[in-house]
């Protein structure tokens, strides 16, 4: 267990409350005067989940690639939560949310507006749970890319997927999905959910887990025997708009139950939105290039960028989507194909998906929502 220090506005000698007169205050209609503290309210995709409080300005301490011994102090604005509801009361993001979206109040936007970093950042999701976040990272040569689908009312990191490959065979399927590092697992609605899940199930070797008492959020889980040290599962890969391939390195999660271990396809059925979560980003450095408006990705073990204060954490349950919008998701028709083939075997049934701490000496909120 890791003890988190609760941020205290009064204990920080660099903090200040944001007044209603600030250009970053979006709730000015709720202010009694321009000098009042600026309130905020965020409603999340999970039913009944919200956060309210006041906006605060404080210092984020970063290091640069040029001189890792010298800290860069950047003033950022964030919400100091006073009332939390829904999933926040059940363990979701116990140490807060770190805004990485396109709105002006997000950390990447503030850093870019202050000319402290390019208007782009990357997040690396290591296979062993190590993570990196690098502000100003615009990617590298040879990375895969696809354009963002922007909605002016509430822009998100939404991309188009044109094909799905399960087990080595490809099916044409056009749908949009949001790349959201604030969601542990991937959420898909139909037809994408059914196409991937049923084809995955057709070629899973182990017996499907049927217990209804385990409380798992995943529909497609498979029992592992007590002495089993390896297993195989069908590959899951995506083709993005523009033709670049996104190979899913880690679509499954191994979970220890009272009756033994199971492995599950880490996809949850969604009613209204498609979300590519952390598990599908594993093994990649994901670049959110807001200057060129493209998503980039390149295979990485996340050790090629030196960083400090990294620490893997093992969550015990799946965290619901943390996106603070209700985006419209579009889907196309699927051309179902027979699926065959499998990935190399997994040799560690006890391996669990890990959320990530990042190389920030400012330890307020290492769990992310793209808002």
UniProtKB/TrEMBL annotation:
One of its GO terms (molecular function) is aspartic-type endopeptidase activity. SUPFAM superfamilies: Acid proteases. One of its GO terms (biological process) is proteolysis. InterPro entries: Aspartic_peptidase_A1 (IPR001461), Aspartic_peptidase_AS (IPR001969), PEPTIDASE_A1 (IPR033121), Peptidase_aspartic_dom_sf (IPR021109), TAXi_C (IPR032799), TAXi_N (IPR032861). Residues 1-298 form the Peptidase A1 domain. It holds the Pfam family TAXi_C. Belongs to the peptidase A1 family. This is Peptidase A1 domain-containing protein.
